[in-house]
Predict the 3D structure of the following.
Amino acid sequence: MIYFKGDEVKLKSGELAEVLDTWGVARTWHKLKSSNGNIIFAMSENIEMIVKRQVDKKGKGWKAK
């Protein structure tokens, strides 16, 4: 699964964290900020699911006139 900056994720340990940065081949590594403020480095395999994804409000969509 691909994770983006700003995603709120649940780790396999049960902890919630926000994705601060991603890098590596196929976004393998992630820098996370846990709910208690600690910085965690984790691989994609350690992330269970996306809890919340921020929506980009820049694109309003195309509308025909």
